[in-house]
Design a protein that fits this description.
The structure is a homodimer of 202-residue chains. Chain A has 202 residues and is α/β, with parallel strands linked by helices. Helices cover 34% and strands 18% of the residues of chain A. In chain A, the strands form 2 sheets. Chain A has a 4-stranded mixed beta sheet with strand order 4-5-6-7, with helices on both faces. A 3-stranded parallel beta sheet of chain A has the order 1-2-3. Chain A is globular, with a radius of gyration of 16 Å.
Chain lengths: 202, 202
Amino acid sequence: MRIGIIGGTGKEGAGLAGRWAQGGHDVTIGSRDAERARAKAAELSGPAGRAIGGMSNRAVGLETTLGELKDACRGKVVISTVVPLSFGGGRLFTPPPHGSSAEEAQALLGPDARVVAAFHHIAAHELSAAGHDIDCDLLLCGGDADAKKAVILLGSGMGLRAVDVGALTNAGPLEGITAVLATINRRYKLKNSGIKITGLPA
Amino acid sequence: MRIGIIGGTGKEGAGLAGRWAQGGHDVTIGSRDAERARAKAAELSGPAGRAIGGMSNRAVGLETTLGELKDACRGKVVISTVVPLSFGGGRLFTPPPHGSSAEEAQALLGPDARVVAAFHHIAAHELSAAGHDIDCDLLLCGGDADAKKAVILLGSGMGLRAVDVGALTNAGPLEGITAVLATINRRYKLKNSGIKITGLPA
């Protein structure tokens, strides 16, 4: 699959890029600063013979703000891993007016973007430890069944069990789980708490 | 522990009553209709020699609306298992204006009630199958450390591992997880999906 990661130089983006490149996908990470993207891509390309490209968000065919991405994302599968957390003390998670960041992205990109909310709970720390099994389910939701199939493939390629949590209106609760995991990480001094759904047939 | 369950004749309340009575606690379930509470209590008291009381919510020292419960709950540990789900189609979970039902209860009961949000994810179906291990963690949050200790005891008495998710401002995300589990139950034709936190020390 050809995958472009907007703002892919952060920990989560870099972790996903590494795992997907390892799975044989053609991955390019974008940054506002093309030089920074190239440097990060070179760094990530080292281990395990992975080749990751780096360019400006614009050159990836992407822009830095979602509104400008509308044309580029038409018909494409767009994965929203965004979680609107506020670390300033007080309430950690408040859903945005649309109900979730994923629904906000859908509203900005228009109905032709096939938005799937996923990968919020897969810790960057787990992603970056290559060769290490990730002990977390891939919870995802969205309105386009084929787009969800593509995301499930991207998850199973890194050994993740996917659990389909229905329509994009469930993205708020999925994003909120990250607040739960972030709090658990802090309280129990962990870097990589995750969640597994119980009761599913084996 | 002496435990009163407001509206305890429903599936979740009856399940908790059964498990707690089995653990040796002194449990009374309340209902608006005292006769209905007594009948349900008699039915629940049958198995395993449990004795559960039943009376009107008012007689349990409780009223049917939280606002009227303010005096009765002063200084007491109050467990909120409430999840504001809308099953009419569309969005399943929308947090109330206070952020969560638990924070709404805290606001109604005043600062002297020691509100803990917990037990949202323990399926009624799992609770009622006595002698059956419950494959789900007990996620809880609240502002009173001693109240959380009491709730953790109530959970460990039925074999649940407790995970402390910090302050009551995290109750919204905990309540939202129930929307995730309800959706999974519907999509995968289950009655008792649950969640486990991964990455915690054994």
